[in-house]
Structures
1.
Amino acid sequence: MFKNEVTLLEQENKKQFEGLREEDKQLINDITKGMTIFKVNSYDAQVIRRDLIGMAQEQNLRNGNLEDSLGDDIKGFTNELIKNSGGPCVIEIILKFLSRLSGYFFIWFLCSSIFFFGKLTWESTPVIYPFYIGVVVITFIIEGVLTPIFTTEKGFRKHLQGILGFLIFASWSLILYLSRNNPNEVEVNGGIIIVTSGLLYLATKYLNSTNIHRLARDKKNYIEDLRY
Amino acid sequence: MVDRSQLMRGTLEGCIVKIISQEETYGYEIVSKLQDYGFEEVKEGTTYPILVRLERKNTISSVYKESPLGPKRKYYFLTDKGKEFLREFELVWNDVKNSVDRIMRGE
């Protein structure tokens, strides 16, 4: 139900990736991290990843490495790739966000009801809702916006994404911590949230798969070609 | 100093399409051929984004095929749109080349 061209390409890429040299693996990961769904749709990104793996394999046969093929300017190469690819898909970005949000809510509230409260309803400060939503938005922004900026950098600049991400997360936590003294606790109906978020998660996963079929429809589907 | 890479940038797309029009070929071979023709500084890092663009514009298409050396390779071939593109490129290139030649000769 949730299998699509991207998941199949991911499986194939994972298999091919294993045989590569460590430095090539690192380079491919750096480049593909720069191509988030905000810049390149996930089908095109997996096709590009497959091509990079192919380039590394070709170089390995000649005792070279991927950097010999690509040159020193990895950031420039990644930007050129992004510029020339099919670009992002807005529907995919929305579905991925909703999927992440519903998935996190499902796990948080399920864990809370089982491990912390032992029941499906409990009293809590209303701050938890903006906090959870904020955490999802922050992780989404870090992965989608900050990571591509710094992933192909070298030295200290490469670690700036982690530092900035931590600062954003810490600021968000602090703001909500300072505003926690709300005397009006509300009843949290964990059961309803768990069921709703679970259903929303499944729906967004299904819709995302349908969207991937659409993205891959008019393009060459490499899955059959790649099977050995 | 003349910036050779800047001068080359606009013409590389046409050269790649011409090489692909001669026979189905793969990324590494395209680079080797370009280097043999004198584009010695060209690497796959230069040609691959162009191949991605050409494929997106449906000028070329590709298929994975067995390789005698190991893993399957992505072979590129020209589409009908690509043949049209190549005809146009040859016309435009000849025009530009003639104009530059005339200027350089001081005619």
2.
Amino acid sequence: MVTLYHWEPNANSGKPMLTLAEKGVAYESHYLDLLKFDQHQPEYLRVNPDGTIPAMVDGDLVLTESTPMMEYIDEAFEGPALRPSDPHARWQMRWWMRFFDAYFAPSLSMIGWSVFVGPAARQRDPAELRAAVERIPLESRRIAWRKALFNEFSEEELTESRRRVAFATGVLEAHLSKHPYICGDAYSLGDINGFNLGYALPLSQPERCNDEKTPHIMEWLRKIYERPATRATWAKGRTQMAARVGMLERGAAGPKRDRGNA
Amino acid sequence: MLELYHWEPNIFFLKPLVALAEKGIEYTGHYFDPTNFEQFRPDFPANRESQLQLEREGPVLVHDGAIISSSFFMLEYIAETFPGPTLLPADPSERYRMHAWGQIIALTLGSAVATLGCERYLAPALRSRAAAPLRAQIATIEPLERRSAWAAVVAAGDDEAAARAARDRLALPVARIEAALGRSAWLAGSEYSIADIDAFAMLDPLPSLAPAIVSQRSTPHIDAFLERMHARPAVRAALALSRTGRPAEAFVPGAEGSRWG
């Protein structure tokens, strides 16, 4: 049986969770609380020495890169195909996943960490926090956590991240105005990736992502939320973060100003 | 109809040249010089995806009207579309490793190797040109990140810090590739794949650009891997397409480093 180590159905953790659910693959779930640094505890470092989540174990294989993990799940298990068979559509899917992973997500998460992850983690004892940061194996992750925990994001960095989020939202809206899904007519890993990145955009970016300005993104998010696999996956969420998905319910009250959660 | 727009066989441009040679596929080659900004001419094939792709500059493949950019995904496209050797491992776990290497290399070496190569070769070449027309040319580049990448090369003059940071960013991915090549002959495992073509194109300049990090002494497995790759007829054929005779000096700005510091 597949074992998945994950946090909330959100961002990188949510990618394999939703992919496994779409394929109908049962898995042994290990919930790690990112805000309590469970991912840097020795038990988990034995699974993934980098201390990043998610990680998936299938037999002898340990998978730690979330986007390639989705391709593996689609390839290795029975169930509906989540990648188009046409090579050009596949190329398009991969192009979009990279755009989400390496352009859109880092900017969105920088904003999210500055307003949500940092303040939430700062509730804890500072000495304990500093010790927790020192235990992080990867230097790049140590730097990211320090910035979030001690609020070291510069105004310049945050302004640039907001600009990129606005730009990427526009590129996505333009694409979805021509195609119902990322690779055309069929639902694919590109949509799973994009939903994990963007399901809360209408709450975290209400001025940029709403029914008037980005009707195609809104319709795309609602359509994905209506899928049974999405409902089942977000039901595994334990925090307010995952609960934000409820605003995609058709007929739900319009977004109120989000207080902090991004 | 298959056309490849490419430059000197180095870094991003080298990858499809090797893959197409491995497959033995006929195509029409269009050689262009990105340092003369020929990729911004109106008749150069471009679309939203090629303009926004995160390597910023690189080869463009046009197949029956479809424009394919972004060098690792181009390798996947070539591997999945054309007959000949598959260049994809049959085993799903090796395929996962192939995808994971493609991602890791794009996000690490794709930025650091281009930075070091530009600092040594492209920056002096650009600075020897008349400054005003060069500035004017760069000012028209879209999107902003692609423009900034060119402007950064010109400005990098005495920026030893940027080169040092790029060298620092090489250490971890190089150590992991060295370890992987110590475990198996090829990066994904037992079978030669596009992950090897991808890694070769980005690693081959490093013994010269960062000898303290990649050398026969410090990374014997990478050194042997580069030698194995150079012996392949497809790699020889790709490198023979050089027009300058110095492909190892041909660099363009690549992906940006992580914005998280």
